[in-house]
């Protein structure tokens, strides 16, 4: 049912965050309820900010459905949970889909770098601080001691840096100062690039504080100092540094349950034989080897690192693009079986808020499940028609792990060897070798990215590789629903990867 949410017409009002969630909700509700989607068809759930109309829809809603697992912006989830009437259910479909047979995929980071890569993480529930899933934690750098300057930043998928720490422009240690600060939702982590202008031992001071709800006074969690050995032996950091962190994925972690800042990762420090890799910063040193020396690119966007063409010591962020997420991949709907789980969950929650509509919701859901079972077979058969040696997906958006696992499709991806700088000539050579070695006839871009993925499209055109469309998080004027989207993707993969030169 279409229309604007209202409190006066006795129609059950449903709010859904993403276009995919809204479409699945409409399959179940039919004409029985009114579904208001917050994010428009071409909107990006990772960045969308709610409008005044969204606030009205949320305020009148009888139930809200989200995808979550940190797919949507934390600010959007906060608006939904705080703007909805007390007692109104807010249902995170991906997080609850396992009860209906949904299968979630653990996020596996790329550790194929020859240096440690260092991110930032928020761990624990934060209940002692009055925190919830919509709370935020600030991790602020307050000082640096060392022979040169330190910067920490993220590089977007198209080469622009977002700076979080830059000692070259100084520090302000006042409690309300927001510079040199990374802000993360509870139970999330982010990748980060680190740059050091000179070799030597660096000590970077950090403090953390919790903002339980918007506008609330920050509550201090703790402070610490992280030591880096840049281009020198870690032994120069002192005898108290028992652990040398020089490989795998490590995070500067704010542990809300323990009330302290630690370093935690998925690889041990040198010589550590324990299973739980958690290190007090005062006992650890992060090694930045001489092999990490990189040339500062010519782009004006990177002038904060120093003069173009000069060297800097770089720990790259390992995964291209701003990428704040939890432990599970949120793009579950790319496996049609998970979308079926979404439907069944929506059905049961709708019956709970509108028992009189139980038979209608059940009939609609049964019909939709049958359509999705047919869809699952269609996608499986179309992808199976691609010769195994051609079944590689090369794209700029890392959102297709479920598609690959469910339908036997290799997610080849494209990440530069050093994503902390703009794609270089060497990066284009690497991409060229990837496409040549895999012998793929096509690469795939989402409609919203087609005009901006220059390196991928230019290299593809030079090699005579076709650039085709694929849909991930949203729809378009051409593709307006979930079933249509998945069929389109299957057809696009089969058509483009089966292309004969």
TrEMBL record:
One Pfam family from the record: ZnuA
GO MF, one example: metal ion binding
GO biological process, one term: cell adhesion
Subcellular location: Cell envelope
Positions in coiled-coil regions: none
Domain of life: Bacteria
UniProt keyword annotations, A-Z: Metal-binding, Signal, Transport
GO cellular component, one term: cell envelope
Keyword Lipid biosynthesis (UniProt): no
Chief location bin: other
Statement: the UniProt record of this protein carries the keyword Signal: yes
Similarity section: Belongs to the bacterial solute-binding protein 9 family.
Name this polypeptide is given: Metal ion ABC transporter substrate-binding protein
């Amino acid at each position: 049912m279409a229309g604007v949410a209202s409190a006066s017409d006795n129609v059950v009002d449903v709010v859904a965050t993403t276009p995919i969630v809204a479409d699945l909700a409409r399959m179940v509700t039919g004409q029985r309820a009114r579904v208001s989607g917050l994010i428009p068809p071409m909107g990006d759930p990772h960045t969308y900010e709610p409008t005044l109309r969204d606030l009205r829809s949320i305020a009148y809603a009888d139930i809200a459905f989200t995808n979550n697992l940190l797919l949507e912006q934390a600010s959007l989830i906060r608006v939904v949970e705080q703007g909805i009437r007390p007692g109104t259910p807010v249902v995170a479909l991906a997080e609850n889909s396992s009860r209906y047979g949904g299968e979630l995929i653990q996020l596996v980071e790329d550790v194929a770098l020859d240096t440690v890569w260092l991110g930032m993480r928020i761990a624990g529930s934060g209940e002692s601080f009055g925190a919830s899933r919509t709370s935020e934690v600030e991790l602020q750098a307050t000082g640096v001691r060392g022979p040169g300057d330190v910067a920490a930043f993220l590089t977007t998928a198209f080469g622009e840096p977002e700076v979080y720490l830059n000692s070259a422009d100084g520090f302000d240690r006042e409690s309300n100062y927001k510079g040199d600060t990374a802000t993360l939702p509870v139970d999330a982590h982010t990748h980060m690039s680190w740059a050091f202008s000179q070799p030597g031992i660096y000590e970077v001071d950090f403090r953390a504080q919790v903002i339980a709800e918007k506008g609330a006074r920050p509550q201090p969690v703790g402070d610490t100092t992280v030591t880096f050995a840049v281009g020198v032996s870690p032994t120069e950091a002192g005898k108290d540094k028992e652990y040398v962190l020089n490989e795998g994925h490590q995070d500067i972690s704010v542990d809300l349950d323990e009330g302290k800042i630690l370093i935690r990762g998925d690889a041990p420090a040198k010589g550590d034989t324990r299973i739980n890799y958690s290190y007090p910063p005062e006992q650890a040193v992060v090694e930045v080897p001489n092999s990490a020396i990189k040339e500062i690119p010519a782009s004006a966007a990177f002038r904060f690192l120093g003069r173009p063409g000069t060297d800097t010591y770089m720990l790259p962020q390992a995964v291209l693009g701003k990428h704040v997420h939890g432990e599970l991949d949120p793009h579950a709907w790319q496996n049609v079986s998970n979308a079926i789980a979404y439907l069944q969950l929506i059905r049961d929650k709708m019956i709970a808020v509108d028992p009189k509509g139980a038979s209608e919701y059940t009939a609609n859901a049964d019909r939709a499940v049958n359509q999705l079972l047919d869809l699952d077979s269609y996608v499986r058969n179309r992808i199976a028609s691609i010769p195994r040696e051609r079944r590689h997906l090369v794209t700029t958006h890392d959102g297709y792990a479920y598609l690959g696992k469910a339908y036997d499709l290799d997610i080849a991806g494209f990440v530069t060897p050093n994503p902390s700088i703009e794609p270089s000539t060497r990066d284009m050579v690497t991409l060229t070798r990837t496409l040549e070695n895999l012998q793929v006839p096509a690469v795939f871009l989402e409609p919203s990215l087609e005009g901006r993925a220059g390196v991928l499209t230019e290299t593809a055109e030079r090699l005579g590789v076709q650039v085709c469309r694929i849909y991930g998080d949203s729809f378009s004027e051409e593709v307006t629903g979930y079933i249509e989207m998945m069929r389109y993707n299957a057809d696009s993969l089969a058509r483009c990867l089966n292309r004969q030169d």
